[in-house]
Specification:
Length: 460
């Protein structure tokens, strides 16, 4: 449909067809990028009511523009392993949308990383970052490098090579990467060192998730997990529920998962299961978080080792079965599409009351439908896990002001931000004929901020 046809007003009755057309074009132009298609579909389907009410978004081709990254960078990352062999990985950065501020989003190092994964994550990041209310655009990046089993020297040489190229495209007012799966404070440190060397400038705000020793923010490490729990607690409160006394299953045992477990426990929940890529542990007395932290954060061991120290617990091979553990609240904090229709059905039949997505897009579209059909409270990733990037933006603010806030100050701001996101989503859902539907609420609330800023800045 061209602009003139839209001007004639056909869109009001044909919004559905128009959105479908945009989606089909995305599929054609980006073949084989299934995760990207999935993320786009979820957002576009939510936007029908707001597009019907605000035709300027259609006239201004906001959808057509927003699904197209402003820039997609792909580059070679050669490095030398400990045996002296030359290895070649692929590096990516998608600079998706800068309507609200410099591109902002993490870097993922995982063998599954490809264009589709980076674009789905970058697309989600646009709306997530908008929801935080902070001045940050959407971006994402990473590499198919697998940090598992690599020595420190190999990780350093790889990240230095990665940053040698990436440094040409980023900066504190341009694009500010951070961590994601496979990228923590150590990798950020090596990348920061390389960036500083290449620029000859100490630009603290070029990366977030830095160590506290040189410009990191207190509570950044905890922020994604804590934020998810703060968000879910708001959602539960509205229905008279709470984490207190609830049984919780959390997938993963990385940064998001560990601090989601910690905050859930602070609020009085019993966390009975968590996982890694090999399988999951079930400890019916409640997981001992100190053991998980030691195994995963310091010793970099497998979660299966947990049962050696806690013989009452069980280890099960394969991680998808974790959703068969009965619970009141499930917090998927591992990776995309870890809850499919089947897993969702099992969770529902075991009486789950609420889902809070700590990972990015951990539920398939079919799984989300199952939760909605059965009245399960559902907190979608781009709202529920926005705490991480929110505290990244607070880290940028501290770096600009050359000061640092206490843990309590940052945590209080994080709680405020998560409560505000929850309220904004609830209101947007209500205004758009989908009361209580936080998927619709989050997508519309985030989209409207970006779309209005894009219109204000002209066709660029
Ligand atoms: N990777 C995280 C996310 O998915 C954090 C991004 C950041 O801090 O920039 O939101």
């Amino acid at each position: 449909m061209n602009v003139l046809e839209k001007e004639k007003g056909t869109y009001t009755s044909d919004v559905h067809e128009y959105v479908q057309h945009v989606y089909e074009t995305v599929k054609q132009r980006n073949p084989y990028e299934n995760e990207f298609h999935q993320a786009v579909k979820e957002v576009l389907d939510s936007l029908l009511p707001v597009l019907a009410k605000r035709p300027q978004y259609i006239r201004q081709a906001i959808l057509e523009r927003i699904v197209e990254p402003e820039r997609m960078i792909s580059f070679r990352v050669p490095w030398v392993d400990d045996q002296g062999n030359v290895q070649v990985n692929r590096g990516f950065r998608v600079q998706f949308n800068s309507a609200l501020g410099p591109y902002k989003g993490g870097l993922r190092f995982h063998p599954s990383v490809n264009t589709s994964i980076i674009k789905f994550l970058g697309f989600e990041q646009i709306f997530k970052n908008a929801l935080t209310g902070q001045p940050i655009g959407g971006g994402k990046g990473g590499s198919d490098f697998d940090p598992k089993g690599k020595s420190d020297g190999e990780i350093m040489r790889f990240t230095q090579s990665f940053m040698s190229e990436l440094s040409k495209y980023i900066g504190p007012d341009t694009d500010v990467p951070a961590g994601d799966i496979g990228v923590g404070a150590k990798e950020i440190g090596y990348m920061f060192g390389q960036y500083k060397k290449m620029r000859g400038r100490f630009e603290a705000g070029v990366l977030t998730g830095k160590d506290i020793a040189y410009g990191g923010s207190l509570a950044r490490k905890e922020a994604t997990g804590y934020g998810t729990v703060y968000f879910v607690e708001e959602m539960l409160k509205e229905k008279g529920h709470s984490f207190a006394g609830s049984t919780v299953v959390v997938s993963g045992s990385g940064n998001v998962s560990i601090y989601a477990m910690e905050k859930a426990m602070h609020l009085g929940a019993k966390v009975v299961a968590c996982s890694d890529s090999e399988g999951y542990i079930y400890d019916k007395r409640g997981i001992n978080l100190e053991t998980v932290k030691r195994l995963k954060e310091s010793e970099k061991k497998r979660i299966s080792e947990y049962v050696n120290e806690h013989p009452q617990a069980h280890f099960f091979q394969g991680c998808s079965d974790i959703w068969s553990v009965p619970c009141d609240i499930a917090l998927p904090c591992a990776t995309q599409n870890e809850i499919d229709e089947n897993a969702a059905t099992v969770l529902v039949s075991n009486g789950v009351k609420a889902i809070g997505e700590g990972a990015n897009m951990p539920s398939t579209l079919e799984a989300v439908n199952v939760f909605h059909e059965h009245g399960v409270l559902f907190a979608p990733a781009k709202a529920a896990n926005a705490g991480g990037v929110s505290v990244s933006a607070l880290e940028m603010a501290q770096n600009s002001a050359r000061l640092s806030w206490t843990f309590e100050e940052v945590d209080a701001k994080l709680q405020d931000i998560m409560k505000t996101i929850y309220r904004d989503c609830i209101e947007a859902a209500k205004e758009n004929d989908a009361p209580g539907n936080l998927v619709v609420g989050a997508n519309i609330a985030g989209f409207v901020k970006v779309a209005d800023a894009m219109i204000a800045q002209g066709v660029i």
